[in-house]
Amino acid sequence: MDYSSLKTREECDLAKAEVEFERRTYANRDEDADIADVRAGRTQASTTSQLAKVEARIASANAVLAAPGIDAELQETTTDELAALQVQRTRLVKRQRQSSGLARFLAAVDAEQVAAQVATLTTIIAGIDAHRATLPA
Questions:
Q1: Per its UniProt entry, which superkingdom is the organism in (predicted)?
Q2: pTM to 2 decimal places
């Protein structure tokens, strides 16, 4: 990086402040990504738990429907409940897919980008400091 366009210590100080601010925004973005990872993990655990409960209720409804001699009202109620549970299972499976695979890969790409940007900005700040030291007071 060429720092020669910074002609005074004041320009160096202003440039450093701007670059430090930029670095802070990336560091903050990194913290936000960490929080999002925690949230995603909690969502994944919650979704897995909810899915297990729905699967158990589906199995129970299927057992009721398979029982011999159930009355028509219980059969209708259980069939309706089973249909609703299957829709709920579909939504939960979809949510589980969305919180894995591609989304995790793209989050990792973003994390790598943020880390590289923070490292680059830190190097630039050091370069500004070194250049500033060469300028007259």
A1: Bacteria
A2: 0.53
